[in-house]
């Protein structure tokens, strides 16, 4: 198949960009190195849009949460990633979590079947000469990373984040652990019991905290002095920040009543369903760089997990991104080589949802340009516009770090408002702005 545009990278951003372009009638060559004999330290399959760190797309609440709001905007624009997430979701309270294998299979099948998409299993080591979107994610190959550095005249930035362990459900002790969502919050498919909770007394927590600090960790000299992303920080790094940091973070006990006492424990370890069958559960917030044997020993001191069997243990992976506020224009084009767009985590957005969202926008911008039209930027009052604005100029270039979508990226609400009402005011304003923008784009070459 001759193609109108090449997309390099078959993760969430590349898959979404390919879908948007193909649906708009353009022929896409989707290059993915997995399946060609190459792989990455974090991936385990050759499937497109493989989820490697968590199975959660986070909150699906579009009324008071920026992540839920971007979900809604993406659904309205025909997102393949959100479509498949909705098809393959598993109970997770008000969050959108998926069976990761079925999700990846669904995305792969949809892209494979599309007549305008050719999936080529190949490693790309140089920037394409024609129209292209680079969506190689945080694990961009060394040769391509070097080519990007040459084209931009600046070094790529790098940080490291960690993968949380997964536990087999039938190895959890339910004489101690119990099912409950925080404050019994019920999602569309849930019953207020979407998480498994393992309680800790003060003494158990103090011993666990000490174990995290003392535990043997994977260390690499060349990785020193590299900042971790706050949203995916290893649990032992959090523990180093203070004795109670974990109790106000991933081990927060508020809103969780231990049925044995009727009271909140001193600390709680939560597990979230990882597959549709409910046989695998990931330990929420327990990204770690502890060595594997140390993980097994320490995590089995958690009440309820004393006999835990692990389907996967935690580990580190490399994460690379460019200085997008300096290097990219408002339509995600490389200023020094405007035939190239960037999308996904390599731009410095963080998270599955955000990566797919930027892939969606890159695909639509490219489709408009290929069709001889211009797609207006989404308003900064929308979740898509706020995230795009942060990446392409809203952040301080010298201190630019990966960022999830959040209301802090939106223009402030004018006038005096009650804190309790502010989030809903953000979402109401965003819905109005998005509706007007979408109406204006009905004549664009992209499906509305």
Give me some keywords for this one.
FAD/NAD(P)-binding domain, alpha+beta, 448 residues, 2 domains, globular, Elongation Factor Tu (Ef-tu), domain 3, 12 helices
Helical content stands at: 25-40%
Number of strands: 17
The 3D shape can be described as: globular
Q: Would you identify the regions where 5 or more consecutive residues have pLDDT less than 50?
A: none
Our count of helices gives 12
Tell me the Rg in angstroms.
22 Å
Main sheet properties = 6 strands, mixed
CATH topology of the largest domain: FAD/NAD(P)-binding domain
Brief description of this entry?
The protein is of the alpha+beta class and 448 residues long. The chain has helices spanning 12-23, 66-76, 80-87, 100-113, 142-152, 202-214, 235-239, 292-299, 324-327, 352-370, 383-394, 419-440; strands spanning 5-8, 28-32, 56-59, 89-90, 95-98, 117-121, 132-134, 157-163, 166-168, 178-179, 195-200, 267-273, 280-283, 310-312, 315-321, 333-334, 337-342.
